[in-house]
């Protein structure tokens, strides 16, 4: 894939992006070795533990792992798990979590009592972080800020190696080899293709009274991640994220002038639901935009594309569209009124 040098990404360090990508790829063996350790120990089910952005980022893994294997996979909110401990979560379970900061309050709290009760917790975090120091199973995240796709690639080595060891993903080695060789250069090229598209989207949407976001399937988590974490938290923009399946059971009545619809379209069987929302928007002639992951190519074999679609989506909308919103709103993505400003 040729990366055009004529497109300049605003507020983006290309060499650092690729350097961080190499750092992630260098962790492949560590992630795979840990997967082998966990597999040999055995486990009855998998709990993907997160909160906020982490929970949303795990969304596509819940969907894909459940499609690949008969192992029960649950995506759970850390605060809820601390409040009501699921009966199926026990010493035979495997808990997988992540924290860029390593001190996410709810995740640290959950990891503490789980370890005390002998429940295995694998964390993707800094080894020297608060979370990293308290757990026995840590995949050191060499890139802890900036880009979700770096986290996704590192997690993919572990998650899909587990599936391979279960006999559910025989082509894992070929997938991981291609992922390691191509993914970050391909995602950089995709970001450049999306750059003018993202700029146009942001120019049309940044000053809306509020925006309705819809998505489904493997990309529902990405829809939540962008609308809630990037726009609500980091841009103070009012959003209404709604699953495409639920769009027609309430939210459709909110569409009017200055209330645009943003449709995130995936490539799995749920795409029909995304198409239904788009056809409705065409029918009533409302303002809407579409991000369609199928418009962006990678060099991995097509059979592996389902694993890459969330990476493509987060690279474009979370990674780049947020920057264009920032350019138009003049609101720095790093500025918060309340989040992590004091104890609450």
Automatic annotation (TrEMBL):
Residues 34-168 form the SIS domain. Coiled coil: none annotated. It comes from the Bacteria. This is SIS domain-containing protein. It comes from Holdemanella hominis.
